[in-house]
């Protein structure tokens, strides 16, 4: 699931007392029936209104603040593509922590419904804190939300974000820049991997080559890493 390619300009990331609705309210106000239907049909869905231009800019400006991150990855060194990204350290910035917590609960309901339909025993707890405790008990203690930066010529190879035994099957990618204004190219790509017709399908995602400008994305992954 990813935020709309058009950044929403009607809500603020930093919420003063009496100001714009909080992240929790924005998530709760989303059309989850439509998201359920889209996820069931296609394996992905598009959400709008999580962040406005000010909020997107505030997250982009975190990128040079190295103390906020636990690691800095240059994709070319690992064969991941071209570009770079940084994993946030705990404690997460308030807005990112709020998004991660608020989005998890309705997504966990979807994930549990999928597991039940597939006959799988695993169930995800209602509270994200409880799921993180499960991850941490298994040695998955490193936070996984990340901020990705692409410049002209950069791209991200198709991949899945798996970091240990406990894996949450849904994640959120929020585009923080305006297509055709801040950058060109850099399309978000999804492909289905199905080795045999009777086997379970998996989605892999990536980013096509950026032709010009800078493209920033916030990735929200709900399980932690070893």
Task: Give structural notes.
This protein starts with a strand and ends in a 5-residue tail after the last strand. It has helices at residues 23-28, 32-42, 53-60, 75-78, 94-118, 128-137; strands at residues 2-3, 46-47, 69-74, 81-82, 84-88, 146-150, 155-159, 171-175, 183-185, 188-193, 202-207, 210-213, 215-221. It has a single domain (2-221), classed as Sandwich (Jelly Rolls). The strands form 4 sheets. Strands 3-5-6-13-8 form a 5-stranded antiparallel sheet. Strands 4-7-11-10 form a 4-stranded antiparallel sheet. Strands 1-2 form a two-stranded parallel ribbon. With 226 residues, it is α+β, with helices and mostly antiparallel strands.
- The overall pLDDT, averaged over residues, is 84
Tell me the distance between the termini: 24 Å
Strand order within the widest beta sheet: 3-5-6-13-8
Number of strands: 13
Question: CATH superfamily, called what?
Answer: q2cbj1_9rhob like domain
Q: In terms of per-residue confidence, which ranges show pLDDT below 50 for 5 or more consecutive residues? A: 1-20
Share of helical residues = 25-40%
Question: What would the keywords be for this entry?
Answer:
226 residues; Jelly Rolls; 6 helices; 13 strands; four-stranded antiparallel sheet; alpha+beta; five-stranded antiparallel sheet; disordered N terminus; 28% helix; 26% strand
């Amino acid at each position: 699931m990813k935020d709309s390619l058009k950044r929403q300009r009607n809500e603020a990331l930093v919420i003063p007392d009496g100001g714009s609705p909080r992240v929790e309210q924005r998530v709760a106000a989303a059309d989850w029936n439509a998201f359920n239907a889209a996820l069931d049909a296609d394996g992905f869905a598009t959400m709008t209104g999580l962040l406005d231009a000010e909020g997107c800019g505030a997250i982009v400006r975190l990128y040079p603040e190295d103390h906020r991150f636990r690691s800095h990855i240059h994709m070319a060194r690992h064969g991941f593509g071209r570009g770079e990204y940084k994993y946030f350290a705990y404690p997460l910035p308030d807005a990112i922590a709020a998004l991660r917590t608020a989005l998890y609960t309705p997504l966990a309901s979807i994930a549990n419904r999928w597991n039940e339909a597939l006959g799988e025993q695993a169930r995800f707890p209602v509270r994200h804190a409880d799921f993180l405790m499960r991850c941490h008990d298994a040695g998955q203690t490193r936070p996984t939300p990340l901020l990705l930066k692409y410049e002209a010529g950069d791209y991200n190879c198709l991949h899945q974000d798996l970091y240990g035994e406990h894996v949450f099957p849904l994640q959120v990618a929020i585009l923080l820049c305006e297509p055709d204004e801040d950058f060109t190219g850099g399309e978000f790509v999804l492909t289905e991997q199905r080795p045999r017709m009777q086997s379970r399908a998996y989605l892999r995602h990536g980013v096509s080559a950026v032709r010009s400008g800078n493209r920033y994305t916030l990735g929200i992954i709900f399980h932690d890493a070893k």
